[in-house]
Amino acid sequence: MPVPAIELRNISKSFGSIAANKNINLTVNRGEILSILGENGSGKTTLMNMICGIYFPDHGQIFIDGKEVVIRSPRDSFEYKIGMIHQHFKLVDVFSAAENIILGMEDTGKYNLKKSIEQIKKISEEYGFDIDPNKKIYEMSVSEKQTVEIIKVLYRGADILILDEPTAVLTPQETDKLFTVLRKMKENGKSIIIITHKLHEVLSISDKVSVLRKGEYIGTLITKETNESQLTEMMVGKKISLDIDRSEPEGCEDRLVVENLNCTNSDGIKTLDSVSFTAKSGEILGIAGIAGSGQKELLESIAGLQKFDSGEIVYNNPKTGKADNLKGKTPLQIRELGVRLSFVPEDRLGMGLVGNMDITDNMMLRSYRKGKTAFLKRGAPKKLAEKVVSDLEVVTPGIGTPVRRLSGGNVQKILVGREIAFAPTVFMAAYPVRGLDINSSYLIYNLLNEQKENGVAVIFVGEDLDVLLELCDRIMVLSSGSVTGIVDAKNTTKEELGILMTKNSKGGYGDEQ
Amino acid sequence: MSNNTGKKAHEPLFHIIKRNGLPFWKSWLIRILSVIAALIVCGIVIVFVTGENPLEMYKTMFEGAFGTERRRWGLMQDLAMLLCVSLAVTPAFKMKFWNIGAEGQVLIGGLATAACMILFGEKLSPYILYPLMICSSIIAGAVWAVIPAFFKAKWNTNETLFTLMMNYIAIQILSYFSYIWSNPKGSGKIGIINASSSAGWLPYIGNNKYLFNILIVLALTIFMYIYLKYSKHGYELSVVGESENTARYIGINVKKVIIRTMLLSGAICGIAGLLLVAGANHTVSSNAADGRGFTAIMVSWLAKFNPIYMILTSLLLVFLDKGATEISTTFSLNDSFSEIITGIIIFFIIGSEFFINYKIKFREKEVITKPEVKEGNEQ
Amino acid sequence: MIVAFITRAIMQAIPLLYGSTGEIITEKSGHLNLGTAGVMYVGGICGVIGAFMYETHTSSFNSVLAVLVPLLASVLGSAIMGLIYAILTVTLRANQNVTGLALTTFGVGFGNFFGGSLIKLSGNTEIPSIALSNTSNAFRTTLPFADKLGVIGKLLFSYSFLAYAAIIIAFIATYYFNHTRSGLHLRAVGESPATADADGINVSAYKYGATIIGSVIAGLGGLYYVMDYANGVWSNDGFGDRGWLAIALVIFAIWRPNIGIIGSFVFGGLFIIHNYIPGLSMGAQEIFKMAPYVVTILVLIIVSTRKKRENLPPASLGLSYFREER
Q1: What's the complex ipTM?
Q2: Which single residue of A190, A267, A485, B166 has CA 20 to 30 Å from C229?
Q3: B250 in A contact zone (CB under 8 Å)
């Protein structure tokens, strides 16, 4: 039995009362690729951050080449030849690739960029990277930036490489190229840990797979001896019954029709790829998918906050009977059309609420324009604040407390409460129960159901598949910006959703209705 | 924090974390303590520099600021002027627009007033002259402020540096007109405008030269308090300042708000120029604003952008200025002594904000350092 | 006449060059120090205090010491100013604009206060200034062969050592930013402190270092002004708004000290050109004095519309860095 390059024993880490990692065990040998598989919030990134010195574990031990080590800072991890390629690149935009690669190195000897460039070229040749060391980061595509990150790690002589969702931002061709590089590194005796959601990638690249679920270590399998359905089951777990009431949808009309929506972000990556669906009144449409599959862009496009390249968003107004196209409209113009659209965004304090304002003033965000005078009327928002606080059991010293001081769950309740009070016809919520305890979560589910019964078209972006299955009527699955399926929530399984979520969608949309 | 059994120093000795907010009284206690600490340090400086008894010095300062009726009116006038400029910059700061060009906006407003007085003072009837002066000063100030705002809204041009440069352009334009309209000719100074006719001078109320100004600024203070707290515009600019994303989310046109707010900011600076020229000095020169554009930033910031608190913070700064001037005459020191004292006190108040926003957390034992205790050690 | 113009323009340029080089170094670490005007005052007055102490306490006047004592005093004074700014903005994460303005208030006050006190001490009641002609002469020692070389000598070699030092420092700063590892790290701190931190660079240390060294260099501008440009005569407020002009020059130089050299000459020229254009009225001269500021605004606008990334201010300029911030 060879000595493992890196071994974790019983690693645990908590943030406040939430356990992010519980007794995790991992081993990776030289010349081996380990995949870490898990849903959002299963604790993969936290675990990796402990290996590279960003967090410090509460309990447990880390061994490098059989020796116990203490990793206190990123610098310590460099010394143990560990290199991490973060999901969000840490690069200085105005620097060239070479400058970024050597940044932070305290080499002895003279600063010699030319010599470094030579060395970078050597590494590039060895692994088949195609990169111009003098090119500035801001001129680079995402895959080039990722290459720079990888070279940076190799330049520092890392033997253990950790890649956090490296393929999330790549095209299939770029992914293939990356995998070729990783295989070469493996041949050279490097140890690689790769975090991913995509099962087919796990199967094609790794030697071993470790599965995490909700912070817990589920197990490690040899890739050759497993298959997609076994892995999916380990990843999503057994179905848990939640007993969420679900009424039959009634009086469904097509409320919001989205057709062929395409969207590209500032890096030139396609975030939405020909997305088409219909949200019906009196129904909850769930949106499932790995985080970052285009959920945010989709909701923001509908809300008028995101410019999209092409496609139509048509709103059928129940009052006038007219069909309004929302394309190219600002949020205010959408509202002026008479579209009552509520939106609970993902980052509540970054968008949707103002942290330094009190509850009343936050309630007023939607309604402050009311009235003809130049002055604000705080009466109604104050009443609403009181109502939301008591109805939704918000824990707060008073309605005059700045929202920033409340806990995450209470902040969420305030936002949801305000958006429902707006009497919407379309209600969109992104992860509305994230960070909420069980009781508050049920409170929100009931509110969503209430909206549905009132004939609102509800769009619910969720991460917990059990909730999606029990709460929603239909579930649309997004993967890398495109729709991999729209299924009936009553007749589907967790495994089916899991497979759709991790499917490489570029092949087409066979499952679309 | 849990104990890492069997391991040595893992985490740094202490680390700094953001506070979720302190109770109102506690944060003010910290600020007051910082002022006291600053006064003690100033006392030491005073003893070191002059060898005088610091208590005696503070008494003299008090005398200098409040000693006679004349001084009290002078103090009120300076307070009003500083407050007026502070009110002007406040909406911009609340929107996180760093307008450090108030100095120039005041000067241009003052110049516009002076121009009306010089060119039309003895030709037009007061019923036309006064409205003309008011309009032109407001427009001049607003135009001066909206130029950087336009570029900020359009291309995100750095407003701090832009507004700073606008100050100097205003000074040069003013110097130019100082020669054009110099009185006596060729002196390069405008001199008292309409000294004989008093045309365009703001009215004395009950023989008091400054009361009119003070009342106007009082009205502006109330206006600004209401504007920021109870008007839709004030609400919008707060949202823009706090989070541009949220502003977009609720459909606020961010560019429009930036330009509108700077128009207001500049307009009030214009009024400050009007009051200085027509209400107090009856002349205009390039140091008419007397650095108030910069001092106002500190006034507004120290008061947390609240117009009512700004009365107190501008009082503090004017008091320091007047008091220290008195010290310098009594103890035959230099006028600039007040600036040193002001600087030290502001350093302390700025520093104390840290202890309001952050707390220091030590390893293992959850000791939260009392900011009151830290205060004295910090400088 | 043209020779006189150029030499005067260069003498005007030197304090600005010191100020802008210092400010560029500070800004490269992500800190906009609006206190530069105050720092330059302190640099100047501390030099004056040093010289005054030396002139009054020495019996045998030694030129080397006469230069060294004020120089050290100036460096010390500006370093303390930089330290105050760094403590407040780096460690205590105070608002940079407010801190900078307070530092200017303090620095200008400090300069004028001690200037005024020394004037009193020197017993000169008629003209409110102090003249340190001996020290100034020591500072103004020029190369001996300058006079022999005619026009070229006058244009190139007629300045004092502090003038050449300013240019050399600007070149060194440029070299430092572009060709040293430490310079690379400093730029990374100003562009993206989080990245620098993740790469193991000590962000606070770089910020402190850049602020203090930047202040010291800016302070030398004040020293040059008093000892050389003003012939050792300190008069209150004599330094004027050169500190702010130095900040403007930073923008003009698009954060590059070597462009700052040319920029300072242009600014110096623009600053005095009104004296050399015949037939200008007093008023028109004032209009000409506007030129440096107008040019700066134009540069600022052009830079922001072109959006060429290398020419933009350091990305984190004006923002405090707090590691645990989301």
Answers
A1: 0.84
A2: B166
A3: yes
